[in-house]
Amino acid sequence: MSEVSRPTLSDALTERMLELIRTGGHRPGDRLPSTRELSQRFAVTTPTLREALRRLEATGAIELRHGSGIYVGADIERVVLPNPNMREMRAAQLLELLGARIVIEPPLAAMAARHASGEELAALRRVLAEAGTHLRGEDAELHDANMAFHGETARAAGNGVLHQVVDSLLTVHAPEQREILQIFDDRRRDYEEHLAILQAIEARDLSAAEERMRAHLVEVKTVIEHRLQPPE
């Protein structure tokens, strides 16, 4: 039987930093005490404290701004976090990623059709307007706009946890998402399908929003699957 590992000093410091943030009522963007003040408060050396801070930064709980200080991170209240260690996906995983999105995103499009506020609809229009200006080869900008559309659609669904799931998939696998754009290679059709999804959401047509999102993602997955097959 393996020995149960004991919490390290860095583990304990990480928990104490999180407790400091929670009990202090700090919100994302709030400035925290300096490294020197924290070292004195927790009676540890600066290198030991920095190790704990780096761990918290990796999860988005804090943000270390060079020359400015330590701030509460935007992801401190997230339930679902992207894996920062994920680097590259195989072809099979790329298809699994799309398969997961086919399961998750169509119902969220229907929820967006039901719940989206005027401000959220305006955000969707803005990102598609931005996408429409990058259909002639500016793939980096087009990719960002496309991912923003899917992320904003998930946000408009009104379920924060599911929005975080979609955001994590799009964030961690950004290189693969760019690869999907390259392989799919029909930017105009992709853009028009996004427009059709938005039109259904704006019309508050739940079934159309869900079906158009599903058809869009299934089509992308089918094309990718076909083009990834080795030649006979």
From TrEMBL:
InterPro entries tied to this protein: GntR_C, TF_FadR/GntR_C, Tscrpt_reg_HTH_GntR, WH-like_DNA-bd_sf, WH_DNA-bd_sf
The record's annotation in SMART domains points to: FCD, HTH_GNTR
- Quote the PANTHER family the UniProt record gives: TRANSCRIPTIONAL REGULATOR, GNTR FAMILY, UXU OPERON TRANSCRIPTIONAL REGULATOR
UniProt keyword annotations, A-Z: DNA-binding, Pyruvate, Transcription, Transcription regulation
Q: Which GO MF terms does the UniProt record name?
A: DNA binding; DNA-binding transcription factor activity
Protein origin, superkingdom: Bacteria
- Where does the HTH gntR-type domain start and stop, copy by copy? 7-75
Tell me the protein's name: GntR family transcriptional regulator, transcriptional repressor for pyruvate dehydrogenase complex
Checking Pfam families in the record gives: FCD, GntR
